[in-house]
Amino acid sequence: MKARNKDMRIFTKQRHVDEGALGLHALNDLPKSRREQVARHLSGCTHCRGRYREAEEFIHVLRAAVKRTEPRALLN
Ligand SMILES: [Zn+2]
After folding, report:
1. Inter-residue contact 39 to 26 (CB < 8 Å)
2. What are the residue ranges spanned by the domains of the chain?
């Protein structure tokens, strides 16, 4: 029973999702197994949910900026 509790503690003390994985998750560009892992962590971690929202916002801003840029103008 003691060993089991110790294992549980290790499980709940897992590391936060790293920046790269958060960004890829926001882009929906993670492999399925990793995506599920990240989604599970996000559902239980307000800290990472906040960081994830920031990543989403950042991507949203970038996409808007890319849309405003005329691609042909860059080629000339
Ligand atoms: Zn976290």
Report:
1. no
2. 16-70
